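Q: Structure tokens for this one, please.
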Amino acid sequence: MHPVEQPGTTGLDADAHLIERDFTAIFDRHYRAIYAYVARRLGPDLAEDVASETFLIAFDRRHTFDPARGDARPWLFGIASNLVARHVRAELRRYRALARAGGQDTGEADSHADAVAGRLDAAAVRGRLAEALRRLPEPVRAVLLLVAWAGLTQHEAAEALGIPAGTARSRLHRARQDMRQALGAQIEVDE
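A: Here is the predicted structure, written as tokens:
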């Protein structure tokens, strides 16, 4: 049991109780995941600022959190995704740089994309992967990266982005098709 959880609550179900009573526990529980996701999207230079801003906004809006949701993770990733969308130009520059670097190590933080590319021989496909990510429209890229990098389910990604589950499903399907086509191989982005 997490040290600040209320008796009778377990795991992420405790988030609903913690939003109002102990927001520090929400920060402690989710900051690393939010930071890692933002660092993968925008690079480590912007990640700390955007991740911190995510929690400032969440704290200011904590009274609007629906306790029936239980898990604050999709809500927090939704806030982070909205902030990332404001920084899309930086993200696109990052993908261009990765595409130019090809298979060379750029010194950036490890990411799920690196793990996927590793299974496909990263030296051969990293540049094409970065270029394919850059070419995806932001709404499609946001769903893909919430699922692939943040580890959200399709349903949680839909909740995070405030879109219907069917829209998230179709965007994820499109992203997977585009990535397969760009890489010229049948890859499997985590279902």
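A few notes: The radius of gyration is 17 Å. Residues 23-42 form the longest helix (20 residues).
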